[in-house]
Please model this.
Amino acid sequence: MAESALLLRRLRRVRRRARVLAAAEGGVAGLAVGAGLAACVGVMARARGHGVPWRIAFVGAAAGVVVGLIAGATRHISLARCARLVDATLDRGGAARDRVLSALSFVERPTTPFMRAAIADALSHALALAPALVAPARPPRALAGLA
Model:
C-alpha cells in the first residue's frame, strides 16, 4: 500500500535525524571521556617528573570522539520511538492522540478500511512536519562534562 510505504519512509527520515543527533551526542561524550583520561595521563606524567605527552593525550581524546560517534550512530532507534516523537510534536498543546503510533501498528497487518483511513490520517499529519522539527538539535547533555 502506498500510504504505508510513505509513512514508513517519513519515520525512517526521522530515525536518520535522531541517529545523527545521537552520534553527535556520543562524540561529545567520547571527547569528554578522552579529555578526562588525557588529563589523568598528564597529571601522572607530571607527578613522575616527566613531560606531558600531548601527542598521546590528543590521540586519546580523538579516539574517544571516534568511539563515541560510533556508539551513538549504532544506537538502536526503533520506528515506534520515531512515531512517538512525531506524535509528541503533533500533540503539542493539545490532547494526546497517538495517531502515528497507531498507524504504525497497522502497517504490517492485513488492512481494513478503518486501518487504511488511520494510516492516511497519520500520513497527512506527518507529512506536514519536517524531521528537524520532530527531532530538533539540542545541546548535548555531555557538554557540561566536557567543560
